[in-house]
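In practice, a research group might receive sequence data for several interacting partners and want a quick structural hypothesis before committing to experiments. The following worked case mirrors that situation: the sequences arrive first, and a predicted assembly follows.
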Amino acid sequence: EIVLTQSPGTLSLSPGERATLSCRASQSVRSTDLAWYQQKPGQAPRLLIYRASSRATGIPDRFSGSGSGTDFTLTISRLEPEDFALYYCQQYGGSPPWTFGQGTKVEIK
Amino acid sequence: QVQLVQSGAEVKKPGASVKISCKASGYTFSNFPIQWVRQAPGQRLEWMGWINGGNDNTKSSERFQGRVTITKDTSASTVYMELSSLGVEDTAIYYCARQSDLVFDSWGQGTLVTVSS
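A structural hypothesis for the assembly, expressed as tokens:
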């Protein structure tokens, strides 16, 4: 089973600042098999990024994804008030189980 | 638009079973698998299993040691997930999600299952 470790656990930033979230895999993950989700309190996760760098439908271009192998990054170029939330990475390659990271909370400083 | 609507919250005693439904609309049901994911308090999202929308292929995580059963009623565009032999550690929000091009692109609103004596 591939274990995903996200860092930092919490990111305290102000609106307008840049957020950089990391996701590290315990073994190599194909770039086509890595996604990022956003979750707000009381809501289901929402797909942001798939195939490591492709934005899902309706996702603003301030969200971008990058990375390969075992290291992946989600960047939010300029934080908007609605971006303060939990973010999870997920690998969905090969056979299940498909696994998620433990999450990074982006909070208002 | 794609919608997945789940059944309501459940309270169960240890040892009981729970069956949650997930009704899909806004797309061709048979063309997409449905996944089940749960989120226990303070824990990461955990994949539980899936079912193919077009046939009866299904698979569940070995972590649940045969306690998970996923079925569907194609005529009703509804998928069911039953979890048996509940323990307090199964208290969680359970989500269904549509899988498209391998990613989970649409999610149900979640069903809270509370296991308590």
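Before designing any experiment, note the following. The radius of gyration of chain B is 13 Å. The interface with chain A takes residues 35, 37, 44-47, 49-50, 59, 61-63, 95, 97, 101-110 of chain B (CB under 8 Å).
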